[in-house]
């Protein structure tokens, strides 16, 4: 990407976006704190969706609530240009530990970007589309929105994600979540063990089979799980056992092969014991994240201009998993990490939750939003990037 000094017009647009966001600062930080104080789980984020939709509507956006068949999704738009910039707002929390993944920061940063861009939409020839995307932590709301056509007209999709440090360009693992249950026959463990079919043994055999398979797993694959029930008394042969498992791999193609092998491991437990197996995929499978290099460099330049240190990540470096990966397979996408000091806390940990409304987290909301807005300005004013993105949309319509 060119390192030449931006044209004065671009500087003016950026400064306009900065001033606009400064005028909305109290509202977006208040939103972040409100989301943090009132966590809601996947597909249940009614108050979060209403808070964001109300704020956008009050700022003049055209808001569609309960969009795409999801009660906690929305679409808020400003402008009518042919270049549609999709900004994804996440706002679901984790069971028991609230916003331990920082989605209050993610959602408020998305709103910051949309608010900063809205007054410039007509001049830039863009449509700002703020998309409320529920259920990232479980279920995959963005996949629901993809299937409903929410991204069909989107030329570039973006969001930032809270993290202990800034990063851009990294990938993520494809994931499939499974609910496992074995049904056997309950019996007295001493008096009539031969009359029982031990469901816990079926699950144990499956776990051993999975452990044995780890040596042959494709590099980067991860299988993790927890037993959620396996009997209640030592003198009763368990007639039911259940577990939840995640399978992850470097790509959707690799994930399909891994799932087939792990399924066979669970089937082995049923075959060996005579228990009946029920295996159910939970929510949608998430694809690996494929970030757009040009968009990523534009974001990195914008964030660094705001005084942040943003190392370029190795695309082979993979973090967790996100349904933004599914979006990235259809639409040019970025999903940079926006960092703030959280001590030694790690994500998905109660300690991380406690840092979500600190001054550093508030700065992440504002910097992440403004960096996305400046990225959108670059995409809209760079003729080559604009042509590329519009050509991609046109190609999807053929």
From TrEMBL:
<dbReference type="InterPro" id="IPR052030">
    <property type="entry name" value="Peptidase_M20/M20A_hydrolases"/>
</dbReference>
<dbReference type="InterPro" id="IPR011650">
    <property type="entry name" value="Peptidase_M20_dimer"/>
</dbReference>
<dbReference type="GO" id="GO:0046657">
    <property type="term" value="P:folic acid catabolic process"/>
</dbReference>
<dbReference type="GO" id="GO:0005737">
    <property type="term" value="C:cytoplasm"/>
</dbReference>
<dbReference type="Pfam" id="PF07687">
    <property type="entry name" value="M20_dimer"/>
</dbReference>
<dbReference type="InterPro" id="IPR002933">
    <property type="entry name" value="Peptidase_M20"/>
</dbReference>
<comment type="similarity">
    <text>Belongs to the peptidase M20A family.</text>
</comment>
<feature type="domain" description="Peptidase M20 dimerisation">
    <location>
        <begin position="177"/>
        <end position="269"/>
    </location>
</feature>
<dbReference type="GO" id="GO:0071713">
    <property type="term" value="F:para-aminobenzoyl-glutamate hydrolase activity"/>
</dbReference>
<dbReference type="InterPro" id="IPR017439">
    <property type="entry name" value="Amidohydrolase"/>
</dbReference>
<dbReference type="InterPro" id="IPR036264">
    <property type="entry name" value="Bact_exopeptidase_dim_dom"/>
</dbReference>
<dbReference type="Pfam" id="PF01546">
    <property type="entry name" value="Peptidase_M20"/>
</dbReference>
<dbReference type="InterPro" id="IPR017144">
    <property type="entry name" value="Xaa-Arg_dipeptidase"/>
</dbReference>
<protein>
    <recommendedName>
        <fullName>Peptidase M20 domain-containing protein 2</fullName>
    </recommendedName>
</protein>
<dbReference type="GO" id="GO:0016805">
    <property type="term" value="F:dipeptidase activity"/>
</dbReference>
């Amino acid at each position: 990407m060119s390192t030449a000094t931006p044209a004065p017009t671009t500087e003016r647009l950026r400064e306009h976006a900065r001033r606009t966001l400064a005028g909305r600062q109290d509202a977006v930080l208040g939103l972040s704190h409100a989301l943090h104080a009132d966590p809601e789980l996947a597909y249940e984020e009614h108050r979060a969706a209403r808070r964001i939709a109300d704020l956008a509507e009050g700022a003049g956006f055209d808001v569609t609530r309960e969009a795409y068949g999801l009660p906690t999704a929305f679409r808020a738009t400003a402008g009518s240009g042919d270049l549609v910039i999709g900004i994804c707002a996440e706002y679901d929390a984790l069971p028991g530990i609230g916003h331990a993944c920082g989605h209050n920061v993610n959602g408020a940063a998305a709103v910051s970007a949309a608010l900063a861009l809205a007054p410039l939409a007509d001049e830039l020839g863009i449509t700002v589309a703020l998309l409320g995307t529920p259920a990232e932590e479980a279920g995959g709301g963005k996949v629901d929105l993809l299937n409903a056509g929410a991204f069909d007209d989107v030329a570039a999709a973006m969001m930032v994600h809270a993290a202990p440090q800034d990063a851009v360009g990294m990938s993520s693992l494809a994931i499939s979540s499974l609910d496992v249950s074995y049904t056997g026959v309950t019996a007295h463990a001493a008096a009539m063990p031969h009359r029982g079919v031990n469901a816990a043994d079926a699950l144990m055999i499956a776990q051993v089979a999975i452990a044995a398979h780890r040596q042959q797993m494709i590099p980067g694959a991860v299988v993790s799980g927890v037993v959620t029930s396996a009997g209640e008394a030592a003198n009763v042969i368990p007639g039911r056992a259940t577990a939840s498992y995640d399978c992850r791999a470097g790509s959707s193609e690799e994930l399909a092969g891994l799932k087939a092998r792990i399924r066979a491991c669970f089937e082995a437990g049923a075959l060996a014991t005579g228990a009946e197996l029920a295996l159910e995929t939970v929510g949608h499978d998430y694809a690996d994240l494929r970030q757009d290099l040009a968009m990523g460099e534009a974001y990195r330049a914008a964030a660094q201009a705001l005084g942040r240190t943003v190392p370029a990540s190795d695309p082979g470096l993979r973090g967790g998993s996100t349904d933004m990966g599914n979006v990235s397979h259809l639409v040019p996408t970025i999903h940079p990490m926006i960092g703030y000091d959280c001590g030694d806390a790690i994500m998905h940990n109660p300690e991380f939750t406690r840092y979500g409304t600190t001054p550093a987290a508030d700065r992440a909301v504002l910097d992440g939003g403004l960096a996305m807005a400046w990225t959108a300005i670059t995409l809209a004013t760079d003729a080559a990037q604009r042509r590329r993105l519009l050509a991609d949309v046109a190609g999807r319509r053929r």
